[in-house]
Amino acid sequence: MNKMINFTIDGVQVQAQKGETILTVARKNGIYIPTMCYISKTTPCASCRMCVVEAKGVDGFVLSCNTPPTEGVEIITNNDELQNERVNIMKLYDVNHPLECGVCDKSGECDLQNKTLEFNVERQNFSARDQLRPLKKWGLIDYEPSLCIMCEKCVHVCNEVIGDDAIEVQFGGYKSTIIPKGSDVLDCTFCGECIAVCPVGALTSSGFKYRANAWELGRVPATCAHCSAGCPLEYETRHSSINGANEIFRVKNNFEFTSLCGAGRFGFDFENRENSDEAAFNRTIEALKNAKAIRFSSMITNEEAHILGLLKEKLGIKLFNEDARVFGEFMRAYSSVSGKLHHSGSLDAIKQSDAVIVIGSRIATDNPGVRYALTTASKHNGAKIVYAHPMEDALMQNVTTQMMKYEVGTEEGVMALLAHEILKDADLDDSERAFFNDLDFGYICAETNIGEEELSFMSKSFARAKKRTLVIGNDLMAHERAANIAKLAALIEKYSDFSLVVVPREVNTLGVSLINTLDHDENIPGVVGYNAKGEFVISSLEGADLAIPALNQQEGTVVSIDNRVLPTNVALQFNGYTLNDIARAFGIDKDETIKYTQELSKETGFKGIAFDNLENFLSPMGEDNRGYLLDEVACEANGELEELDDLPEFNGTIIYHCDPVLQFNNYTLKAEQLPKDNFLHGSAQFSVAARISDGDLVEISFGGDKIQRKFKLDSELKGTVALNPTFDISVDAGRYRFEKSKIVRVM
């Protein structure tokens, strides 16, 4: 147990743990120390000096943001000398800072503005020669150098949290500025986190600029609707004109502790503007009366999923959702070995890790929240990160310490090798040890392309690690040997110190898998689609037979990757029918959808808490007080490992269903600000194998589907696997993401 450090701040007795600074201890105890450049989720920038304090017996001022306390030290946070120091710092910050508060987007929430008023800087006694600093337009982001105070927050968060490392300081004294790193243009994933952390109006959203003042906007707390990370955000809304409807003007996050990807920040305009249509509603009721099944996506709330389950029982029909079904089957196989329903890990566990294995996911685009957690672990803990996948990923190069490149389709063999290496000294039972003893390692290593030296190197790099995490992606859940892979993952979690994080594909894949009893999807007549394809379609997207609200127009809950039930709220009103209206037409009668929140199954870990009683905030120190964690549920551990199947071979041209940065689905496709890169991306080697060239229009045949795309030669890719986006097409979410394909040039 770490010894606590006892000291005083302004006469108050406080304690610090190892690694804490004077500033963090002060904040924990509600003692105010002003800062300008400090941000909780990065290492201290230490550029503003606003946080200086006095330490008794120490000459000069001490930076509280990066100074740990010593036993018995007496800290003073405010006196005349400190006040004078901070006033002078503010005067330096205000030198020639343009007085544009009347039109600046940051006015009303500007740290410089607030601190200038706090320290009563009413006049400027000196100035410096102004510089020509042209506005920089970087796509979704504008940079105004004349407003920049060089706090360096943007640089730190880009490098230490996001992992893009796309900007840097160009030092030059008073001429210093922020510039793209190693490029004339900004080359990044456009998460917009630099905008969020900027304390002034230097970095702004080009789509929001000059559209509204901060104090005019209403704030709606919600949960991001684009992936399973469950990131907290606020929709900022206002009427679009004097008599106009409300509109989402921008999205913000609590940047001190949380981050958003670009889709979460800029892809907010996916609402459904359709109005009530009684005739369409009546046709919907008739369609459901004659339906054999409802097919639905996981882009729905828990409450909607519960209503669909009630409709299944009422109408005696089937429910199809391949995304949630394969996830649920994977987790049931996991439970048969682990003896519990839910995986043990979380995003926070990844952040705190010093050793991580990621397998079966192009994680940077599949789930940016996981990527940011991995970056934090790498930059702050020096974590060793093994990235196991058939394809290298340039976005992960800054944090990956070992690339374990395996052959497509051999995930079961790779998991067996990892489990054997991790558990070689574990106290397994006889049948489990027999499974590993019977493995043909020569065959597995040859077919997977993973050698013993790679596994040995991994073990050596992990030797001193104290917090280890295994991250499992969707490639494994949709694999034909998913059940055995899940059991191997459970075995690693059960007999080692690895925590396990299983990454759901869509925003509420996990919730749906816990709520609904799902049938295997069949190509049968009489299927009604709910945010999915069907003969009759109920959807929040265009072209539906009945329009319903999108996720930014609903109250309800979803379940995140952390096994946390998270509330979301209505940002924009929907003037039409909801699933609850349909249910009421069949005698399933509650006046509001959220009345079902407290009825969610306790057998799968829900707590029966009413929606209006769910908390939805982060504490001043960043603790997540949104919703609640699912209760752990014990399961019968009667599963046994199966003998490994023959490992498949994928020859010829292969496509990998993987969306580009900032795109996830048809809802991000709808967002105006997000780029729509729907090219087939492939390497020069793929180009030769497929006999196509950069810019060619090609027809891609996979499974029973045919689509046309333009081919784009990508210098960052290698091998004969090409990336095929799915955000603009409908692809079965339950199928293995690597597919053999036939590709021909369209004449």
TrEMBL record:
Residues 178-208 form the 4Fe-4S ferredoxin-type domain. One of its GO terms (biological process) is ATP synthesis coupled electron transport. This is 4Fe-4S dicluster domain-containing protein. One of its GO terms (cellular component) is membrane. Residues 81-120 form the 4Fe-4S His(Cys)3-ligated-type domain. SMART domains: Molybdop_Fe4S4, NADH-G_4Fe-4S_3. The keyword Repeat applies. GO terms for molecular function: 2 iron, 2 sulfur cluster binding; 4 iron, 4 sulfur cluster binding; metal ion binding; NADH dehydrogenase (ubiquinone) activity; oxidoreductase activity; quinone binding. It comes from the Bacteria. Residues 3-81 form the 2Fe-2S ferredoxin-type domain. Its cofactor is [4Fe-4S] cluster. Pfam families: Fer2_4, Fer4_Nqo3, NADH-G_4Fe-4S_3. CDD domains: fer2 (cd00207). Residues 217-275 form the 4Fe-4S Mo/W bis-MGD-type domain. Keywords: 2Fe-2S, 4Fe-4S, Iron, Iron-sulfur, Metal-binding, Quinone, Repeat. InterPro entries: 2Fe-2S_ferredoxin-like_sf (IPR036010), 2Fe-2S_ferredoxin-type (IPR001041), 4Fe4S_Fe-S-bd (IPR017896), 4Fe4S_Fe_S_CS (IPR017900), Mopterin_OxRdtase_4Fe-4S_dom (IPR006963), NADH_UbQ_OxRdtase_75kDa_su_CS (IPR000283), NADH_UbQ_OxRdtase_ferredoxin (IPR054351), NADH_UbQ_OxRdtase_Gsu_4Fe4S-bd (IPR019574).
